[in-house]
Amino acid sequence: MSVKVDLDQLAAAMADFTFAYLVTVGDDYRAHTVAVHPVLAGGVLGVGPVGNRTRRNAGSHADVTLVWPPREPGGYTLIVDGAATVAGDELTVAPGGAVLHRPALPGSTPGSPTASGCGDDCVPLTD
Question: I need a labelling partner for 24 at 20 to 30 A (CA). Which of 8, 50, 52, 86 fits?
Fold first, then answer.
């Protein structure tokens, strides 16, 4: 299922983070993770030049994930799933889904309903 990402919300959320991890998978389905500095322009995330393994993985398996870790403990993690495109050594990602996520806060009742329904503290970035 495709979820339309609100690019205005994504741009605003990205401003709170300094870098992301790009996660790709190879033909053996092992994850490969690299630190990147994505820039949102024209509805796509420009990741910039990437190494051989990342380029090879994204060329064979376009579904990728970008994960921006929280700046401080207890903060949100920004997670974007998307489709990668490789042109030369440059990689871009068309966002397909995005969410701000953090584990349930300490002291909260396990299984309590949340606004997003995901069980933890999630904020989907959809329009």
Answer: 8
- Beta strands in 1-127, from DSSP E residues, in sequence order: 20-25, 31-36, 39-41, 44-49, 63-68, 77-87, 90-102, 121-124
Pairing between β-strand 31-36 and β-strand 20-25 as defined by DSSP bridges: antiparallel
Residue 31 CB contacts under 8 Å (≥ 6 apart), including other chains: 23, 24, 25
Cα–Cα distance, 96 to 94 (Å, whole number) = 6
Cα gap 45→28, rounded to integer Å: 26
CA atoms within 13 A on the CB side of 57: 20
Enter the pTM of the model.
0.85
Give residue-wise pLDDT tens across range 11-50.
999 999 999 999 999 999 999 999 999 999 999 999 999 9
Nearest partner of 53 among 20, 30, 81, judged by Cα: 30
Cβ-based neighbours of 44, under 8 Å, separated by 6 or more: 85, 92, 93, 94, 95
Task: Please identify which residue in the block is written with the tokens 């584990």.
Answer: 103
